[in-house]
Amino acid sequence: MGEKLYTVVEDGSIVTPQGFRAGGLHCGLKKTERNDLGLVLCDVPAVSAAVYTTNAFQAAPLKVTRESLVNGSLRAVIVNSGNANACTGKQGEEDAYRMRALTAARFDLAEEDVAVASTGVIGELLKMDRVESGIAALPEQIHPAAEGAEAFSQAILTTDLVKKEACVAVQVGGKTVTIAGAAKGSGMIHPNMATMLGFMTTDATISPDALQQLLRSTTDLTFNMITVDGDTSTNDMLVAMASGLADNDTLTPEHPDWEAFAAGFGYVCQVLAKAIARDGEGANRLIEVRVAGAECDSDAQAIAKTIIGSSLVKSAMFGADANWGRIIAAVGRAGRPVNPETVDIAIGPIAVLEQSRPLPFDEEAALAYLQGDTIHIDVHLHTGSGSAVAWGCDLTYDYVRINAAYRT
Question: What pTM was computed for the model?
Fold first, then answer.
């Protein structure tokens, strides 16, 4: 993704871009003492864009956020974890609007300046007394420094084991522009828009249409190419906010530095997407599937996601079993054109199939490779120039244990 076009900011966070502050606290929605209410705040109106879940049952906060984004601008995003506020009817909608109104009043904003996001258990009403108390206490927790970003990142987690952050710097017209992101996601991950919840910040000056188009196209190549369990959440949402405080010439696809900005934006999204796949519920290993030689990119994407989403492939990877038959079976059922006589497959450095014919390979070497924490599966179809990459994780006993007791 054009690594030479941007510089990775190793200690960067969502508050590294100019104009952003963040924070979080524990208000009592989670049974543990982990933070469960967070806020990202921009000091100025930020050009903003979002993509949302394609699940037919969309949580109440998504309706509120769509309304807030009608004019393409935001100042804040209020987020709670521990409760999805999904499938909660009229009361759930009223609660989401109440979260927006309370946040706007507490930070002296217009209501339409505030987006709302929630994640957690579906079908339970928010404990609004706790949410209201939390929002009232938030201003003292909002900081432009690293502790604010840390508190926010912790506030959006549910079954996640680790926070997910990334940040880069890009030169645009001689000005340094920063792009950052934070995300959560561990289970119910098979996005058809974004991730469970994702938040992007940048101090770039960019047109609203350009930001929306970039967000959507980048999502298709990153967040939409991960899967943990094949389930698309009711709450998936990815929001991007641009403060414009880097004071660069307005970015559009015609700008001479657009490629660099898009590459940096794509890098941040890819890091977050891979972190979600690696942190899949109960997962031991990150799996990366690379498909080449398809008739077109969309065919390669469909095949890569079918492989990465196969429970049999994921189980084989958990067992460190080089069972390539499960991989080729997934290729064949993906519903895209393939030539059954021309498929090559390699598991890491070990070629197991050539021109759809099995190759002898060292089982001990394969076992040793598959016991590592990252597994690469390469599939070449030899029918065209289409390619794609997808990410997922192995399927372990712990995934069942975690989800068997999610509500309890």
Answer: 0.85
